[in-house]
Amino acid sequence: MKQLAVLALFIATGVQAECFIRSVSVAGAVRQIERITDINSVIIPRGEQKQCIVKFRVQVNGQWFNAEAEATGPKNIDPNQLCARALDVGRAEFLTRVGPKQIQNEEQMVCTDQTPQRSRLVKIGDVVKESEVAPHPMHPYLFNYRNTFCKWFLETDAKGRDLVQYQGVMCLVRKNEWQVIDKF
To answer: pTM for the complete prediction?
Structure first.
């Protein structure tokens, strides 16, 4: 009888909850990189972006290998940061190509009755999460303004029978908190 009551309670609460399956798969290389050396970087401008191509030597199990990788970012990104990203990508790609791998998979069904984060209308001065506004398709990259990261966003609203589209700028003020600086 207790089992039936628990099952009925689970079904009753499950009707109101939003459920999804969270799946995590990790493919890890059994081998490890012992050393990376002879790093050569080249920065190539590509219109509104720049690309860093990195060539380097990798030592695994006492053997040396040549490796190459690339990363692309906005033209105002620090070249050292872009090349460091390319080196990280190259390290990961190299390990996936070399040697046997171990794959771990874990799945969980998660149910919550919390309301999911959705886009909302904002005003100048509002503090929002980045996901609460739509990204601006013409200005997708972060930019630096007064020593903080800022980004453009787009907002669509209805005024009577007309659709109105606003553009705005928000800047990072704290971790995961953006303040709307301008909207027009």
So the answer is: 0.40
